[in-house]
What we know:
This protein is mainly β. The protein contains two helices and 13 strands, in the order βββββββββββααββ.
Amino acid sequence: MADQITGLTASWLPNQGIQLNWTAAEDVTTGxxxxxxxxxxxxxxxxxxxxxxxxxxxxxxxxxATVYSISNPVxxxxxxxxxxxxxxxxxxxxxxxxDNTGASSIPTTISVYQSSPISVYGPPHFKxxxxxxxxxxxxxxxxxxxxxxxxxxxxxxxxxxxxxxxxPGFGIPDLPLTEINAMKIQSAVNNWExxxxxxxxxxxxxxxxxxxxxxxxxxxxxx
Length: 223
């Protein structure tokens, strides 16, 4: 089996494409090649990797030189966006090293996402409930987004104080149904997730059943 490439990175270049860069496989030679694939039909049950390009060794001749030289395949590639089309919000690529014997390496895979138009969002965070997306990557949410903050608030509301031995103060007080205190709940939520700016109110329906309403905001002020 051929060695894998390492250090694969993908950069989104607006109005241009996806710039891929990597470190050459340790056993690469002038007889090697890099096969680049892109993931299509990611939302289907059986997504398919389609070939994009094969990068082989380079033959060059210097100015006024009389001999040619052969160099190893390049370790970068710009995947261009198609003219006249709107780029997808994300892409996934894998790169396979094929050595001079025809043996293939294990694919090295990477995903790249279009940058958020909201500049205040920082690097993405893992979701509260860890899962894997259709690209085989861990699912993430934008930092400081409403989705992230609301998920954190849900965890706080679903945890009684003392329910997490490693963080014994985390959660909300386990109050009797007859002693529900909206202000204590609001204080606990804002203590553990200050980005929520939570407002907690206690309401009753026509049958005198109590229910808690929690209003939160994200960093953009969306409720």
